[in-house]
Amino acid sequence: MSPAYRECQRRLLRGEIGFKYRDLRILKKNYIYHLDELKKHIPDNVFQHVSNYIINRSRAVLYVKEGNLQRKIDSFRAGRRRVPRVDLNVVKNLSSRALSYDGTKCLAHGLDYGLVPKNIQDMNIVSIIKNGFQRITDISQHHKKMMSEVSEKDTVDSSDVRVLDSKEMTLASNFRSITDSFRRQAYRFAQLQKRINTEQQKYRRLLRNLKNDKSILVTRPDNGRGVVLLDKVDYLSKIHSILNDTTKFSFLSYDLTITRETKLIKLLNRLLDEGSISKDFYILAKPFGSIPSRLYGLPKVHKEDVPLPPAYDEQIFIALYTLVDNALYL
């Protein structure tokens, strides 16, 4: 639950309590007024009897309401104390390192579990907001056009300089206000968690110790979302045995990645000159800084001797595959 959401809840609660206090003051004033009027028109013994009856009936109603409120408070406190259940069986320690209960509990949250960062990266926040504003207002496309004209003419016509209209200026101001508020709230929340959340501090120490242990490897299993600890020596030995299988892999004395990148760039240049592809497609499809695919192994923990079937990091192909796949349906 974010601090902004909690602050909104507090304001609504304060407003509701204020309305109830106002109604209570009005009812109290009316009660005293009518009680005085009743006292003027009936005998004292009858008034005393009626007054005792009103007090007894009110006390019974108050007891019921107090009981309901107490049950709600107890239920709320129990909910606050409730700790999410963590399945410790998802952690498989196949290494020679002894893993404590706290370490197992920490890893049982999964590899996607993240701790509250100690420091807020202001530049990252500002960069993300700035990119979002550029997409919304189409500034980036205008900037590309202007820069191309600058490179061709070496001058900029004042009429080509973009001036934000009133709506865009308002949007930029709102973005700035939201960004500043988010940065302040994030910094305050991080500092508060650093002081009061002892579990986060304990997990941070445990993860730091695991990170500094160069003899183990923390990864995920071949199937599922668990966590597996392996001895790095055993892991590398199995990977080397896979690579030494000449029926599946062959040794190359040089890297073909740059050569293939150069061939692809030449092909894209030829297609662009022929008019077969657009300039935008050329910019998106042109590779730069290509690296070879990374080979790694994910352990099959349910099998004997825990084999490591090889897997390849195909992230570098996803963008080009999506681009070509979309082009086929145009």
What labels would you give this structure?
5 strands; mainly alpha; 330 residues; elongated; two-stranded antiparallel sheet
Described by strand count, sense and barrel closure, the largest sheet is:
3 strands, mixed
Strand order of the largest sheet: 1-3-2
Quaternary structure type = single chain
Mean pLDDT: 79
Sequence stretches where pLDDT stays below 50 over 5 or more residues: none
Judged by helices, strands and strand pairing, the structural class is mainly alpha
Cα shape: elongated
Count helical runs: 11
Fraction of residues in H or I helices? 55-70%
Radius of gyration: 34 Å
SSE order: HHEHHHHHEEHHHEEH
Approximate strand percentage: 5-15%
- Measure the end-to-end span: 44 Å
Give your account of this protein's structure.
- The protein starts with a helix and ends with a helix.
- The mean pLDDT is 79.
- With 330 residues, it is mainly alpha-helical.
- Helix content is 64%, strand content 5%.
- It has helices at 3-41, 44-81, 101-107, 122-137, 139-153, 166-196, 198-212, 232-243, 257-274, 279-285, 315-328, and strands at residues 91-93, 216-219, 227-231, 295-297, 310-312.
- The protein has a three-stranded mixed β-sheet with strand order 1-3-2.
- The chain is elongated, with a radius of gyration of 34 Å.
- The chain contains eleven helices and five strands.
- The protein has a domain at 3-81.
